[in-house]
Amino acid sequence: MTQKSFIEKIGKAAVKYYKTYMILPSLTIAQAILESGWGKSDLAKRCHNYFGMKWVSGCGCKYKSYKTAEQRNDGSYYTITAKFRKYSSLSLGIKGYYEFLQYPRYKALKGVTDYKQACLLIKECGWATSLSYTNLL
Fold it and tell me: What are the φ and ψ backbone dihedral angles of 49, each rounded to 5 degrees?
């Protein structure tokens, strides 16, 4: 899949779901690019998880375990094995992202229309441990 077609696929879904979930489409696209390496990560290809969403019991989908690097507040890294959500299609993976953002900790994102603010808030709400996550988006 080319970068252009990746953006088109994610973007089309992001615009479609905006009316329901009020999450800025540009944030969705940026996260999908960053988290999945333009859809080329094993997690994206095998699990249709384009956002690095971890699995929890009761979330309604299967999982696959992967090693992942986490970053401490002091900047040091450590590796864990985590369960990640596994979806059967791209469309279910994207819908799963919006359902994931319905957890109360992400409520500050709903209705935000400034992309810089959305990129800051997603990190502040606890999406990623990377200290540079906001800038990377």
Answer: -110, 100
Here the tokens at position 3 are 């970068």
Torsion of CA 33, 29, 100, 133, to 10 degrees: 60
Average pLDDT, the chain: 95
Identity of the amino acid at 56:
V
Dihedral (Cα; 61, 66, 69, 71), 10-degree rounding = 30
Residue 84 pLDDT: 98
According to DSSP, residue 109 is labeled G
SS (H, E, C) 35-97: HHCCCCCHHHHHHCCCCCCECCCCCCCEEEEEEEEEECCCCCEEEEEEEEEECCCHHHHHHHH
- Dist. CA 2–CA 38, nearest whole Å: 8
d(CA 115, CA 137) in angstroms, rounded, equals 10
Closest CA to 83 of 61, 62, 64: 64
Q: What is the pTM of this model?
A: 0.92
Taking the C-alpha atoms of residue 117 and residue 133, their distance in angstroms, rounded to an integer, is 13
